[in-house]
Amino acid sequence: MTGFGDDTVPEARRSVRADVAQTGLLPELLQAGTAPDAVALRDGERSMTYRELDEASSRWARELMADGAGPGEFVVVAVPRSPESVLALWAVAKTGACFVPVDPVEPACRIAAVIADSGARQGLTIATVRPSLPCSGEFTPRQGVGVAAGDAARYGTGIAPRRGADDAAQCDIAAARSDGADHCGRHRIDWLALDDPRAVGRAARQAGSPVGNADRARALRPGHPAYLIYASGSTGTPKGVVVTHRELGALTGYIIDHYGVHDESVVFPISGFT
User: What is the pLDDT of residue 163?
Assistant: First the structure.
């Protein structure tokens, strides 16, 4: 890895920059400039190549899509910083759904408020934190929310659409309770644990080949939401900010240019996805 501002590998950097310039969609941005057999992530003695990460995330993406994940939908990810958190991000991105990260150690009612406000019906987690997560239960089927390519105005304000105002209000009321009851009102989410043996078995039977629009319920467009981040602001109530795929290309290009990122760079994830 070269240091900040190092210009000794301009060709590698230009190669990554060129790949990024060709797309503004998160699934392609995640794989831009990668080498299949290079190490994608390392955690102590554990490591995955880009090929392994690509195939595993495709399998989990198909498992999520089988239950309705796709462009215009929201998937909550409650996974501590780990190789699994990276796998979860890739899997959700490949479905075309919007990635909604939450910190599993946050109070249950805050997580419930994010779930209810985003309208997420699916969540990814791991077994060790699964029992503490709210809103457990099979979701109620509903029609997905699609965002056409020319629909960027819908998300142009940067404020996430509130699709469960009544459920969010129920959570606000439940916040005052201390008896450990569910804080989710009538909203429920289907949690899928990445290390649950049954889920792992189902995912293993899915294809590890690339996921594209032919596999999704609808085509992924630049105007679709890519990720949704919640911040409390000054009120203590979670507020969501949506970033669409259209906005990601310029952001990624800036990071590559400003920090001198190239295909041999190493990034230390000192902070969580939230």
Answer: 39
